Amino acid sequence: MPLQDHHQIVSVDDHLIEHPRVWQDRLPEKYLDAGPKIVEVDGKHLWHYDGNVFPTIGLNAVAGKPQEEWGMDPVRYEDMIPGCYDPAARVKDMDVDGVQAALLFPSFPGFGGGVFFRGQDKELSALCVSAWNDFHIDEWCATAPERFIPMCIVPIWDPVLAAAEVRRAAAKGARTVSFPDSPVPLGLPSFHHEAWEPFWNACEDTGMVISLHFGSGGYVPGFSFANTNTTGGELRIPDAPFAVAIALFSTNLMWSTVDLLFSGVLQKHPKLQFSLAEGGIGWIPYILERTDFVWERHRYYQPIDFHTRPSDLFREHFWGCFIDDVHGVENRHAVGIDRIMLEIDYPHSDSNWPNSRKRAAEVLADVPDDEVTKICETNARTMLNFPRVS
Amino acid sequence: MPLQDHHQIVSVDDHLIEHPRVWQDRLPEKYLDAGPKIVEVDGKHLWHYDGNVFPTIGLNAVAGKPQEEWGMDPVRYEDMIPGCYDPAARVKDMDVDGVQAALLFPSFPGFGGGVFFRGQDKELSALCVSAWNDFHIDEWCATAPERFIPMCIVPIWDPVLAAAEVRRAAAKGARTVSFPDSPVPLGLPSFHHEAWEPFWNACEDTGMVISLHFGSGGYVPGFSFANTNTTGGELRIPDAPFAVAIALFSTNLMWSTVDLLFSGVLQKHPKLQFSLAEGGIGWIPYILERTDFVWERHRYYQPIDFHTRPSDLFREHFWGCFIDDVHGVENRHAVGIDRIMLEIDYPHSDSNWPNSRKRAAEVLADVPDDEVTKICETNARTMLNFPRVS
Predict the structure, then answer these.
(1) Beta pairing partners, B186
(2) Which residue from A100, A179, A355, A363 has the fewest beta carbons nearer than 10 Å?
(3) In chain B, which residues have their Cβ closer than 8 Å to the Cβ of A187?
(4) Which among A218, A219, A318 is positioned nearest to A274, based on CA atoms?
């Protein structure tokens, strides 16, 4: 049976655009000037923060525009449909799209809070992180508590502060923390480093799912992009169209997944849960088979757990989602039927809005009813404990 | 029907270890001292070349050893079974393994000739490249012309010289050139750059297949490895076990594939053929579906061909191979049944030698006979024009 009226879609990957006063309403007075604010320059709305000007208010916020007009980011709030930055309007856009509940990643802070990591004044940065969480939970999600799933970001530059913010946000209702797909390209310790122990402990204690959104670590995949350094130490100017990176972003999450599977972190923290946001699912069977193959052959001479098969670890600790992934849906049992969720990606260009429900029905047309229920709704509710049941 | 006696396995990915006199037998006298030669130091056989000492004579040459002893590269020729460096012994090892014909990548030069690229004296480097080709074609392959498929490497630092070497090697019988999976990490122009036109033209004119072996560009995938540069400009010491990279090497070939599909090179050179060596095949359906999705949505504002669907281009220009890839074999029609080949990977650790034929029979047990014939033999013979039919 295809998608039916009783199936409620819960999306684990959407985005909001912050309105101009998110930080101005919340920062202490001494930081109002340096904190994020919108300034109008030559008819454009631009974020100013910590002495820098940011080129876009709504990266890739193309919902409602024809494909031929994509590629130009909105330069004024009026260039976007209100559902981007207004929660009441967003609920209406979700109704049009047939979506019951959604998890919304940040825009100005970067998916994983990287903008505040790069800020020079780290006291201001930490306040900006908390302000976003307060805005998101108390202002945005509070307008429709059954429709918006509370998320948080953390001060990723300090695992102890990050742990404290996880606990603070969890107490306010946050169900998941958006974290960089890897800390390494940011210059932070890798997932293999014990520095993250306070953060892992806080997530485990609070049941906080860790959402790894592709691109959240600032690393652009593909051989022709700037973070592919050369032997000579110079960064090359990319000459590949950005479509190459868009097609390849899931390779970031393949890297994150295998990194974590071989890190020992999952054995040490058996309750940790990772959501691979916007990564698709069609690659999972291959990567798990390959990782098991390597584990079977190469574990004798490396610091790897001898006893736990990586694919078993994956199915206890990871969740995947998709928008449009025919191969992944056909191979859903090789992925793990209890670990697959839908994403909508409003207002970004990968989204099928306002036809997300229609497209999901097409993709799920040959999937049995109980499996459709899991994929479109209950897996996400289970992962995110939404609504809260314990 | 499973693999049967009449099926001849043709492997498109194996390796040879160069014997000590490959270059000493061929270089002009003035370069004999600087050219590659084996020196015994503290009981170890080490390559000396261009003023540098190389740490291993046979990277990962573990054929015939128990898994518990892997991780230590051979330090003397006697540490390896003779089939590594002796073509007559190799034929016997192929007989034991049930393999009819094999394509052997270089060891000391790097899979794609990167060691000579890094040599300071480029006149010597170019002579070393040609010497390897002469050794491989005239000495090694000549011992059993029906069993060994001639390959060549090229001076990758100069597309005009590379084109000339392609034409010279083709005239001597070479069917494929081993080329870096990307030139970018080496500091060379990307596949998108017109600098490569002479090379593409030479490959097209001579029917020279371009073999992209994972790792041949020197780029190690995974967030924790050294070529993942940080924002601070310092290279981090990897703290991930190397198993992470071994599991992820196919992501290099995902990058190479998408780079080429969006480069315009394939439309300009309709005869070019690329072999994705040691990359597996299970990821191909997902990456093609994703690349088509991006092409459908994002081509309007980028320099991308509007008319040719990437998955159609793939099936005209790419070939994949596998050792052990259950997911890929199950999804062989989504990969393309005319584009899948076997690899054996002797003497490396991914190989099932001396049980390659047995393992292939297991993996192919549920595959129809005509498809087994294509996968184990005729696709490789077609791609490589081996034996030569035109």
Answers:
(1) none
(2) A355
(3) 230-232, 234, 236
(4) A318
Quick one: angle between helices B310-317 and B284-298, nearest 10? Answer: 140
Q: Which string of b and e fits B310-321 if b means at least 16 CB within 10 Å?
A: bbebbbebbbbb
Of residues A260 and B72, more confidence is placed in A260
> Are B289 and A325 an interchain contact pair (Cβ–Cβ within 8 Å)?
yes
Q: How many CA atoms lie within 13 A of A45 on its CB side?
A: 20
Structure-block tokens of residue B228: 């993942």
Question: What residues of B are in contact with residue A217 (Cβ under 8 Å)?
Answer: 223
Token reading at B174: 């070479």
Residue A322 · residue A12 · CB < 8 Å = no
Query: What's the domain count of chain A?
Result: 1
Q: Measured between CA atoms, how close is B25 to chain A, in angstroms?
A: 32
User: Rounded mean pLDDT of B320-326?
Assistant: 95
Measuring CA to CA, how many Å separate A79 from each of A18, A38, A85, A318, B362?
14, 15, 11, 37, 58
Note the pLDDT of residue A236: 53
Nearest in space to A367 (alpha carbons), one of A324, A333, A334: A333
Q: How confident is the model at residue B245 (pLDDT cuts 50, 70, 90)?
A: very high
In this structure, is residue B42 part of a structural domain? no
CATH number, position A322: 3.20.20.140
Which of B290, B299, B335, B349 to mutate to probe the A interface, most A CBs <10 Å? B290
Are A262 and B243 within 8 A, CB to CB?
A: yes
Question: Residue A9 and residue A66: Cα distance in Å, rounded?
Answer: 25
Give dist(CA A365, CA B233) in Å, integer: 50
> What would the two tokens of residue B178 be?
């081993």
Q: Which residues of A touch B290 (CB under 8 A)?
A: 247, 250, 280, 282, 325
Helix (H, G, I), strand (E, B) or coil at B322: strand
Q: Do B283 and A287 touch (CB under 8 A)?
A: yes
Of A234, A241, A286, the CB nearest to B328: A286
Question: Does residue B91 lie in a domain region?
Answer: yes
Q: Closest Cα to residue B165, out of B199, B137, B192?
A: B199
Q: A140 to chain B nearest CA, in Å?
A: 30
CA distance A241 to chain B (A): 6
Interface test with A, best of B117, B186, B190, B308 (most A CBs within 10 A): B190
In total, the C-beta contacts within 8 angstroms joining chain A to chain B are 242
Structural domain for B206, as ranges: 10-28+82-384
Residue B39 lies in a domain: no
**Residue B129 covered by a domain:** yes
Question: Rounded distance, CA B80 to CA B17, Å?
Answer: 9
Q: Is A259's CB within 8 Å of B240's CB?
A: yes
Confidence label for B237 from pLDDT (cuts 50, 70 and 90): low
**CA-CA distance, B79 to B58, in Å (whole number)?**
10
Closest residue in chain B to residue A327, using alpha carbons only: B286
Task: Return the pLDDT at B303.
Answer: 80
Higher pLDDT, B173 or B390: B173
